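[Meeting: bench + compute handoff]

Bench side (C.D.) handed over the final construct sequence. Compute side (W.E.) agreed to return the predicted structure before the next meeting so the bench team could plan truncations. Sequence as handed over:
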Amino acid sequence: MRVVHYFSPMSGYAYLGFGALGALADQRRASVDHKPIDVMKLFAAVDAVPPAKQSPARLSHRRIDMARWANRRGLVVQLQPRFWPVDAALASCAIIAAQQTGFGATALAGSILSAVWARDLDISRTDVIAALARENGLDASEILDVAKSPATLARYEANTLEAISAGVIGSPTYRVDDELYFGQDRLDFVDEALAKALAA
């Protein structure tokens, strides 16, 4: 069984759901295929207003909601992070690079999400991504070299186009078989889908 995880490394709700996704995947003996996407291209494709450009009332509600979920999940969260939004291309490609070099993306992806929403770090900076790679026992030079390669940039674009084609409307979105579940508050449905697949 597999969960496809479409997300942006600067997504607050992807941060809030990341640990819970890993826990339920472990419980259901499912793999998670992390697919970083260019969420700004996605928003343009689906005619959505990016969160940072929403009305003050919507932003206020978002921060209240995020605080509630962070409390429920036992997470630290900066509700107005210093470096959000930023260009997430380098961070996204670093996650893909970790996959392509055989290290696996989970640890680095979690660290990058936490960097934005718990540590007030700028994930558009090369030195920040290098430091996060080293914190996870990765070869920072190799990760950055692969991240900046044309093949990795092409994979990032392909992830984004795949998400748009599949009908994804935001980050995070989870896919089990052909079913999409948008938002980390839909993880209960993801768990149910995995449980049914496991029973079958």
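W.E. noted at the follow-up: The chain has a mean pLDDT of 97. C.D. will use this when planning the next construct.
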